[in-house]
Automatic annotation (TrEMBL):
Membrane spanning stretches: none
Gene Ontology CC, one term: Mre11 complex
InterPro entries in the record: P-loop_NTPase, Rad50/SbcC_AAA, Rad50_eukaryotes, Zn_hook_RAD50
The organism's place on the tree of life at top rank: Eukaryota
Cofactor section: Zn(2+)
Keyword Secreted: no
PANTHER family: DNA REPAIR PROTEIN RAD50, RAD50
Protein name: Zinc-hook domain-containing protein
Organism: Muntiacus reevesi
Entry's Gene Ontology BP terms: chromosome organization involved in meiotic cell cycle; double-strand break repair; telomere maintenance via recombination; telomere maintenance via telomerase
Catalyzed reaction equations: ATP + H2O = ADP + phosphate + H(+)
Subcellular location: Chromosome, Telomere; Nucleus
């Protein structure tokens, strides 16, 4: 019972909450805030509000948003619940009674339920400490009504003070979901343990399958299995992930080593680069003064060469001008003897004459271009006229061909039309016109004749068409008669066929009666045999015994369930004990595997199996040693890189010096022709001196020879100008003059060749003088620079070999230490895991001791697995017994169905035998009906054939009548013979003669 306090009426109303036990106490305290109209449904019949016949009274709207479907405009008394609200009143209605109106004054003093305490009911104890309190949400709505009144499906609606609508999205029955979330227990525990109905409180004694299902729901066995499966999958996934991470770790270690190696290489290369830059910088510092000195030398040399070239150019120009002057003097036939002014006047006159002639030449060229243009236009016009002439000639030829074709056609047409005077061509225009006139006359005559013939044929065709229409009408009537007769014939034939079929059936009826007698006897015999062999009573007795056995098995299963329930109280402890024991064995196995896997390796490295701290100290020392070795190796690599760079620079410099020496020697050899530079230069100077003397001699010889010839020729001297020897004869004088003149003629050529040779030698001398610094450079390179570089290169090679040996030694040492460090690092991970496992093992042993203390003093000879196995065996046996019961019941049903089937077969055979006996009595009547139908069918056959023959005759007349009259040349008589079978005979021939 529940008690509500704080109400305005004199006595406190009492009511029963649906779903709450009668022994529950419900205490509510009054609050000062205004009540919610939705809690007005908790009113009781103790209140005397006046009745309200309609929801529309005083303008109060119905909370259902419309009138009741049971009674228009009124609230139906059969609706489960209805809450109406309006500005002046609240409607309260309990199912089974009339609606009642609650005024606002009544709502002002109503109470609300906030908490409910439960004690002494079902699983709630009777002590104060067992009391449970349920706190309700505000506002609370209580639906009151008998079973089936609709409390579950009734939606809650209300209208608040400010006109705002509030509604629940789910139905009231879904409060189970809210209870589950609030109480923190599953639905199966609420239904089967806490709020178990008294009528269903003996569910632990139910059948095994249902009981197992309820226990699974209570203990969430499915969720536990799913959780175990999920844990297994997660463990498998994590294990796979660990394997992938280990593989990835392996590659990451390789990448790390590669990165360290690359970092070391970068360090060595950077050291090489630094040393190379220092060497280059020192070389650049040494090269700067040399470059400045070389630049000054080059500038001076360029000035010298430029001045020399200018001198040579001026001399060459002078000589060329002298040469040109001499050649002009030789080429001139007549030397102008006038003044410069006269020569300029003559030159200007000549220029004017030249310009005049050029002007006339331009005019003539312009006139020539004009004439050429006119000639091109005339040639183009000529070609167009020639094309036009060819086209006209082609048209003329085609015209003549058309005339010849026309004449040929006229001759052939005149021959066909039998016209005279057109045998020979060509024809004149008058003959052509005459031919056209004759052809038109013949055409008009033929057209007139054709029109007369067409009129005659049209009249005949109309007459024939009229006859055809009459014949078609007759044919149509015959066709309808034939169709009618054919339908009657078909119907009679079907009747005759059915009667004959019945007679055939009746002919075999006597044999069928004998067969039915045999089958009936056989069926009766089988029926008696089946009834005799039936063991239905035995099977029923066996079913009863099996059911008793099933009852015993059910009782045994219930006992096993009780035993299982007793064992389940310690299942958690035993399960945890087993899990801890298994965990301890797994950890022992893991520790053993780790020791077995790394014992030999760690013993070989340290001499004993260390712990984590000892191994970390050893790794720290090894790491320090490796870093020192790497630093030393990096320093050696840096020195080696510097030495290699220095070697490369020395090699490059040595190669450059050697190439420079080779190029200098080649240039020197190209100029001198040998390597003896000083002797060649001295010899060349002597040759130049000789050539200079010879050139001076030849230059003076020309003047001397000219003077000698002038003296000998002009002064008529008879002695030699040199030796003063006299000439005996004129011939000797002329011979001397001729000899002098020949020498005088040869003197310029010899002078020219001598000057050319002298220039070449001077040029070669200048080139050799320019090679004097190069000769000094060659001496320096051979005697000083190249030997020094070769000595440096040998020293650097010795240093490089020493550094390589040191680096190889350090790399060998590092290659021996790093694998030991790596293997120790791998072992460190497992040693760390082993120490963690040892700590966990101690914790597990402590927990095992605690669980063993809890289980001490308990007699648990049989485990849950054993009881469960026995239960499964009993359940399997129960299933077997149930299957046997079902099988026996099926056998009983099959035997009963077999007997029933045999009885129905016997009855069917008796019925068929009676039917055949009745049909034999109708045989005489069917034979008479067969004779009559045969006679009628034969008569209809004859009539149909006669009508068909007449219709064919009309068809033939129609077909022959539509032929054109001009085609029918003659008429003749013929006979048409049509074979046909007589209706009453199998074979026969009839004939009919007709005039066609």
């Amino acid at each position: 019972h529940a008690t509500v306090s704080g109400c305005k009426p004199a006595r406190a109303p009492s009511f029963r909450l649906p779903g709450v036990p009668r022994a529950c106490g419900v205490n509510a305290r009054r609050r000062s805030d205004p009540p919610d109209p939705r809690r007005s449904q908790g009113g009781t019949p103790g209140w005397p509000p006046p009745p309200l016949s309609s929801c529309s009274r005083e303008g109060i709207p119905c909370g259902r948003d419309g009138p009741s479907p049971s009674l228009p405009g009124r609230c139906s008394p059969y609706d489960p619940f209805l809450l109406c609200s309006g500005p002046a009143a609240k409607l309260w209605w309990a199912p089974g009674s009339r609606p009642q109106l609650l005024r606002k004054e009544t709502f002002a003093n109503m109470s609300r339920i906030e908490k409910m305490s439960i004690q002494g009911v079902r699983s709630f104890g009777i002590e104060d400490k067992d009391k449970q309190i349920i706190t309700f949400f505000s506002p609370l709505t209580i639906l009151v009504g008998p079973n089936g009144a609709g409390k579950t499906v009734s939606p809650l609606r209300s209208r608040l003070q400010h006109g705002e609508k509030v509604s629940l999205s789910s139905k009231c029955a879904e409060i189970d979901r809210e209870m589950i979330s609030s109480l923190g227990v599953s639905k199966s525990v609420l239904n089967n343990v806490i709020f178990c109905h008294q009528e269903e409180s003996n569910w632990p004694l139910s059948e095994g399958k249902a009981l197992k299902q309820k226990f699974d729901e209570i203990f969430s066995a499915t969720r536990y299995i799913k959780a175990l499966e999920t844990l297994r999958q997660v463990r498998q996934t994590q294990g796979q992930k660990v394997k992938e991470c280990q593989t990835e770790l392996k590659y990451l270690k390789q990448n790390k080593e590669k990165a360290c190696e690359i970092r070391d290489q970068i360090t060595s290369k950077e050291a090489q680069l630094t040393s190379s830059r220092e060497i280059v910088k020192s070389y650049e510092n040494e090269l700067d003064p040399l470059k400045n000195r070389l630049k000054e030398i080059e500038q001076n040399l360029s000035k010298i060469m430029r001045l020399d070239n200018e001198i040579k150019a001026l001399e060459s120009r002078k000589k060329q001008m002298e040469k040109d002057n001499s050649e002009l003097e030789q080429k001139m036939e007549k030397v102008f003897q006038g003044s410069d002014e006269q020569l300029n006047d003559l030159y200007h006159n000549h220029q004017r004459t030249v310009r005049e002639k050029e002007r006339r030449l331009v005019d003539c060229q312009r006139e020539l271009e004009k004439l050429n243009k006119e000639s091109r236009l005339l040639n183009q016009e000529k070609s167009e006229l020639l094309v036009e002439q060819g086209r006209l000639q082609l048209q003329a030829d085609r015209h003549q061909e058309h005339i010849r074709a026309r004449d040929s056609l006229i001759q052939s047409l005149a021959t066909q039309l039998e016209l005279d005077g057109f045998e020979l061509g060509p024809f004149s225009e008058r003959q052509i016109k005459n031919f056209h006139k004759l052809v038109r006359e013949r055409q008009e005559k033929e057209a007139e004749t054709a029109s007369h013939l067409l009129n005659d044929f049209a009249g005949k065709e109309a007459l024939k068409q009229k006859q055809i229409d009459e014949i078609r009408d007759k044919k149509t009537g015959l066709g309808r008669i034939i169709e009618l007769k054919s339908e009657i014939l078909t119907k009679k034939q079907n009747e005759l066929k059915n009667v004959k079929y019945e007679l055939q059936q009746l002919e075999g009826s006597s044999d069928r009666i004998l067969e039915l007698d045999q089958e009936l006897t056989k069926a009766v015999r089988e029926l008696s045999k089946a009834e005799k062999n039936s063991n239905v009573e035995t099977l029923k007795t066996e079913v009863i015994s099996l059911q008793n056995e099933k009852t015993d098995l059910d009782r045994t299963l219930r006992k096993l369930d009780q035993e299982m329930e007793q064992l389940n109280h310690h299942t958690a402890t035993r399960t945890q004990m087993e899990m801890l024991t298994k965990d301890k064995a797994d950890k022992d196995e893991q520790i053993r595997k780790i020791k077995y896997r790394h014992s030999d390796e760690l013993t070989s490295l340290l001499g004993y199996f260390p712990n984590k701290k000892q191994l970390e100290d050893w790794l720290h020392s090894k790491s320090k040693e490796i870093n020192q070795t790497r630093d030393k190796l990096a320093k050696l690599n840096k020195e080696l890189a510097s030495a290699e760079q220095n070697k490369n620079h020395i090699n490059i410099e040595l190669k450059r010096k050697e190439e420079q020496l080779s190029s200098y020697e080649d240039k020197l050899f190209d100029v001198c022709g040998s390597q003896d530079f000083e002797n060649d230069l001295d010899r060349l100077k002597e040759e130049i001196e000789k050539s200079s003397k010879q050139r001076a001699m030849l230059a003076g010889a020309t003047a001397v020879y000219s003077q000698f010839i002038t003296q000998l020729t002009d002064e008529n001297q008879s002695c030699c100008p040199v030796c003063q020897r006299g000439f005996q004869t004129e011939a000797e004088l002329q011979e001397v003059i001729s000899d002098l003149q020949s020498k005088l003629r040869l003197a310029p050529d010899k002078l020219k060749s001598t000057e050319s040779e002298l220039k070449k030698k001077e040029k070669r001398r200048d080139e050799m003088l320019g090679l004097v610094p190069m000769r000094q450079s060659i001496i320096d390179l051979k005697e000083k620079e190249i030997p020094e570089l070769r000595n440096k290169l040998q020293s650097v090679n010795r240093d490089i070999q020493r550094l390589k040996n040191d680096i190889e030694e350090q790399e060998t040492l590092l290659g021996a230490i790093i694998p030991e460090e790596e293997s120790a690092k791998v072992c460190l991970t497992d040693v760390t895991i082993m120490e963690r496992l040892q700590m966990e093992l101690k914790d597990v042993e402590r927990k095992i001791a605690q669980q063993a203390a809890k289980l001490q003093g308990l007699d648990l000879d049989r485990s849950v697995q054993q009881v469960n196995q026995e239960k499964q065996e009993k359940q399997h046996k129960l299933d077997t017994v149930s299957s046997k019961i079902e099988l026996n019941r099926k056998l009983i049903q099959d035997q009963q169905e077999q007997i029933q089937h045999l009885k129905s077969t016997t009855n069917e055979l008796k019925s068929e035998k009676l039917q055949i006996s009745t049909n034999l009595q109708r045989r005489q009547q069917l034979e008479e009906q067969t004779v009559e139908l045969s006679t009628e069918v034969q008569s209809l056959h004859r009539e149909i054939k006669v009508k068909t023959f007449i219709s064919l005759f009309f068809d033939s007349r129609c077909n022959f009548s539509v032929l054109p009259t001009t085609i029918i040349k003659s008429e003749s008589e013929s006979r048409l013979v049509i074979p046909w079978n007589s209706p009453g005979q199998n074979t026969g021939v009839g004939s009919c003669s007709l005039l066609q």
